Amino acid sequence: MGVTMAPAFDVRNYSLGNRKELIKKYPEQAALITDLSKEAAAGISEDKTNAFLNISVFLTGFNAIELLGTGLLDTYYNKLVERAMGTDLSLFFSRVDEVLKQGAGNEDQTVSLISQRIMADPVCGNLAKKIITMWYLGNWIIDADNTEVVSGEAYIQALVWPAAQTHVPGAKQPGFASWGYSPE
Amino acid sequence: MEEKVYDVVIAGSGISGAILAKTLTNAGKSVLVLEAGLAEGIELDGPAAQKTYRGYLDRYYSVLARVPNSPYPAIKDALTANVLDIKPLKPGVPSTVGYLVQEGPSPFSSDCVRGAGGTTLHWLGTALRMLPNDFRIYSNYGQGVDWPIEYRHLEPYYEMAENEIGVAGEVAEQKIPNMGEGFFRKGYVFPMQKIPQSYLDIKVKERMENLEVQLNEKEYTLTCISTPQGRNSTPNTSYDIAGVKWDKAAKKLVVTKSNETYEPVGAIWNPHTGQRCEGNASCVPICPVQAKYNALKTLKAATRDKLCIIPQAVVSNLLINKETKAIEGMVYKVYKNGDSSEYTTSIAKGRVYVLAANAIENSKILLASNAANSSDQVGRNLMDHLVLLTWGSFPEKLFPYRGPGSTTNIPTFRDGEFRKDHAAWISPLDNWGWSWPTFSPGSDVSNAMNQNKFGKQLRQQINDVISRQILLHFECEQIPDPENRVMICEKYKDQLGNYLPVIRYSVSDYMRRSFEAAKKVSDQIFKACSVCDTTSYSKEFDPGFVEYNGKGYSYRGAGHIVGTHRMGSDKNCSVVDTDMRTWDHGNLFLAGCGNMPTLGTSNPTLTMAALTFKAAEAILNQLEK
Predict the structure, then answer these.
(1) Which residues of A touch B282 (CB under 8 A)?
(2) Containing structural domain, residue B24
(3) Terminus-to-terminus CA distance in chain B, angstroms?
(4) For site-directed labelling of B365, which of A142, B125, B492, B593 has its Cα 20 to 30 A away?
(5) pTM of this structure
(6) Residue B293 is part of a domain; what is its CATH number?
(7) Which member of B61, B202, B452 has the closest CB to residue A156?
């Protein structure tokens, strides 16, 4: 980046979500932090939502209609952009673009490329798992010790339940006596 | 300051306070209920009630750890036990993490709701009667104590409780060891037909109905029966009880008969909602449609112009007349907004006083007042069901996480000679997979993430793992031990200046032998069902980890808080008489599970509700003398 960094501020701590806190904490680094934020923002533009949907299909094993049916595509995309590190996001989405292009509609090939180039990569794999966790549980993993519920609606739309051929506890109730029958 | 002298002043609006409020006001008495929970909680009608309940539901959806108290507001001025506060205890170091100050050596592992409706807001709804031998385990097995009454004395009150709660079940299927003839009155049926048993129950039953298991050189035959529960189902057309009425002339509570078909009681905000269980599968901690019974339904059915409820009112102590020992007032603190530590103090006055605030709160109030304790039994004999869980993968799909938490149980070990050696237990079949011990399905997703699974492979694995989850419970009857107790201490108070409960608690060898026995039975069940057993108990992470005969077991609390002001025939070793009146104070009654001298293998709510009707009858007789 061609900028000298003061030892106290570590760019790995940077994320779009906490830019204002960082400037408060390291006022002398305000200019650098603002530059980083511009760089990160430049990597994330409007049309990444489509890429997010496409990669989510491959990551979750649910098709686009099922994902769109949750009503949470924008919520999850915004959560990702707000919480993930800017540089990680840029890398992730450029990797996603590569893989989807190379896979060129061949499912097996795309799956194989995702496995090698996204899941196996420390940065991209980490983000991929956070994305899967959002779709499956409605939770955002902050770090190893901290998780937050994205929203009450995200809980209700969690895909782990339909994956298990059931429904979320407390909502989408299937009706009296339904539990006496196999869902198959 | 309240100047009015009510007929009855009651601390608490859980099921026992609610049954008293309804029964007494319906008999024409004036009743004041003091409820520690928030004002929004006592809304009983229309949009206001729905708004409060919707708030509980939204909180449940948005919180990370969906434990039993998770939908309900945490009130700093009226704290309560929460399972999230239960930690492994260090010897000699009391844990002050949560509301309960835990001295140990073992953690008391149950929680309860402090708020209007009490713990019935989050209970599962299982409504089982105690067995005849449960009332005499000292005479029969040399363990614990005998009750001063027998099953047959309580039987008519059980019918009242089943009517009030609205129990769905099948009498003909209740075949339980040593229940004896006449356990149910001839021709008796429950108000509603049984809750349909789950697909999981059917599949498990296929492999283990009539399975012979060996335990300590004896053979037992396992059976599976449907579980009666307080949850709306199809009305039973042969059920003919309308309700409970005070018969002044006969000086008794009587059931009134009806030719009309029983009508399930729906949600308090709309009677048409919750007419049947809809399969939300979230009973613990909350039924979104109130198809499950909660005590707000009983409060709503009181004679409302005879009932006054003061919310945000925490009872701190009783005033006692020095000469007569009569209770002269119930001191309560009304807090401003739940976390203000700003409060006003008032004294409630009645002809009769009742503590119905749960077994822990009742003890606290009595100890703080130096009341009702000439026997030195107040706070002692704290009991719970100690739950041993075992779990594994079933050879075919069971599709758990559907329907109420449990619709079937194995009654085989609810009674028998083995109670001389180890505790009896009931084994509910659990419909909600491994969620309790392993935090499934969140843990299943994170396991898959650790394996780098994604896409269709991930979805397939999630489906395969979750759809075959089976969980067995062994709810073991804890025997009373006077050293298991609730105490108070000047050192531990809350921000209103009320005492925090200090708990001393241990797990005896008698209980550990039942864990050992239960695991042996579980092993045989799993073997017969070809279940891949994945049970594990962790010394490091499980607060309830104990050892016996070189093996480790983890117990969990069932949420059954019992025994702390027990009933007896001798005032030197009990707190209340068979009318639930304290021996020491002629105008003070105690209600709730604290009255129970032993626990049996049934969830205590139905029994405590039956006892409450009995207490209501005694109170009415006393008022009309």
Answers:
(1) 169-170
(2) 5-623
(3) 29
(4) B125
(5) 0.94
(6) 3.50.50.60
(7) B61
